[in-house]
Specification:
The chain contains six helices and seven strands. The chain is of the alpha/beta class. A five-stranded parallel beta sheet has the order 4-3-5-6-7. Pfam families: Oxidored_q6. Belongs to the complex I 20 kDa subunit family.
């Protein structure tokens, strides 16, 4: 009920029912933040923790997140693991195929900075933010499923602050 109070600013009793007033920004952002469809892009070790977050113990479905295999049906990409020079164009292509507004979460040290491959690898990209814009960074090697869920909650808060007009 607190969530409804946050979204709907003013409720009045009318003789025939209720009248609810809110801004379209708050209504659309509330709906969008609570119905994120995500595309998994697991490249290395972090993918195991990402899959664990979607399994029954942590259950990301309860946050309104639904896994989709097609980028055309998603608005969130979770990149977990080392991004190589060979995979970077594919990540960019999938990101471009996603519908607007689209968001990216970089999960793990390798996807944020290149991790252990930062200095000695010619093939590792020094962070997925060189390929696509990243909205939330989740550090760790590998980060636990709780950290991924916290990052998703941070992204939901960010989405709730957006404006349709400014986009």
């Amino acid at each position: 009920m607190d969530l409804a109070k946050e979204v709907f600013q003013h409720v009045e009793k009318l003789p025939g029912g209720n009248l609810i007033l809110t801004s379209t920004d708050k209504l659309f952002n509330w709906a969008r933040s609570n119905s994120l469809w995500y595309l998994l892009f697991g490249l290395k070790c972090c993918a195991i923790e990402m899959m664990a977050a979607g399994a029954s113990r942590y259950d990301m479905d309860r946050l309104g997140l639904m896994f989709r295999a097609s980028p055309r049906q998603t608005d969130l990409m979770i990149v977990a693991g080392t991004v190589t020079a060979k995979m970077a164009p594919r990540i960019r292509l999938l990101w471009e195929q996603m519908a607007e507004p689209r968001y990216v979460i970089a999960m793990g040290s390798c996807s944020i900075t290149g991790g252990a491959f930062f200095y000695d690898s010619y093939a590792a990209i020094k962070g997925v933010d060189e390929v696509v814009p990243v909205d939330v960074y989740i550090p760790g090697c590998p980060p636990r499923p709780e950290a991924l869920i916290e990052g998703i909650l941070k992204l939901q808060e960010k989405i709730k602050q957006e404006s349709i007009v400014r986009r």
